[in-house]
Amino acid sequence: MLDIILSIDKWILEFIQTYMHNPLLDKIMPFITKLGNWGVIWIIISIIFILNKKYRKAGILAICSLLIVVILGEGLIKNIVARPRPFMEIPNIDLLISKPTSYSFPSGHTASSFAAAMVYAKMIDDKRIVIPLVLLASMIAFSRLYLMVHYPTDILGGIILGLLSTKLAYVSCIIYKKL
Hints:
mainly alpha, globular
């Protein structure tokens, strides 16, 4: 079963490399992925929301969710799974960004993006705010595939971790009545 999943992972990456790469996206995708570095874009957005009384709770909850992603994803799961990145296992890949040094599973960019975006989707009723943030999270996740630094299952794991972190942050804030 694991062999089938790995084959599908590699097939999807090869499809992206063969049929989707082009000079325009080769310039756009590194920029999009940089937005997700260290979750900085989500921290900035959260701070902006914290400064706005109407969205303060969403900003605080997003920060909590991001902290859970770091603890679970970067601190625990990546080091337990210890999966090498695609560019280390698939020959002849020219990276458009610097080689990441951490393990591949789960995608931290994706986890942090979906953790924050899902907090906003849950707590903010304005679709003019939420839809662009969810699209940004999705674009950051896809950029990781396009740039060959994650497998599709790393992205899926990141999405699941992001959703789980959102739920844990929300439940813990209700339990402790912080929000």
